[in-house]
TrEMBL record:
<protein>
    <submittedName>
        <fullName>Ligand-binding protein SH3</fullName>
    </submittedName>
</protein>
<dbReference type="InterPro" id="IPR009577">
    <property type="entry name" value="Sm_multidrug_ex"/>
</dbReference>
<keyword id="KW-1133">Transmembrane helix</keyword>
<dbReference type="Pfam" id="PF06695">
    <property type="entry name" value="Sm_multidrug_ex"/>
</dbReference>
<feature type="transmembrane region" description="Helical">
    <location>
        <begin position="85"/>
        <end position="106"/>
    </location>
</feature>
<feature type="transmembrane region" description="Helical">
    <location>
        <begin position="38"/>
        <end position="64"/>
    </location>
</feature>
<keyword id="KW-0472">Membrane</keyword>
<keyword id="KW-0812">Transmembrane</keyword>
<feature type="transmembrane region" description="Helical">
    <location>
        <begin position="126"/>
        <end position="146"/>
    </location>
</feature>
Amino acid sequence: MEINPKLMTLLLAIAPVSELRGAIPYGILVAKLSVAEVFTLAFLGNLLPVIPLFFGIQSFLSWLGHFRWTRKFSLWFVERTKRKAVIIEYYKAIGLALFVAIPLPLTGVWTGTIAANLFKMKFKYMFLGTVLGVLIAGIIVTILTLSGSELFHILKYQ
């Protein structure tokens, strides 16, 4: 069974490992969708988990803490997130936007939203910072994808 390329682009944008950093190259280079379509799907898909994640992470971590075999992971995860996202603690929404915008592993929406919750950021500032960060990340990844694709074609035909 083959998954629809638009759906796959959306799912990659939602997933915590790939986010839009994987969705945009897939949509443009593999699925051959239009840039506007890919950007829209990746942008919206990357924002879909934000609200449930922001309001549900404390309950989930608390639930993990009830079990001996997951308690260590829960504590490690919280400490690691706080260490990685110190920019969010200091600069609030602007720091969150910068953190989410950096197109590197472990700096996306999932980690940023969790960190914003752990640092007790107000929802409206978290959401504003996240939207701005996803927009910037989307622009960066789209430009890099299109530039890399063009460079590949130039080198291929020389």
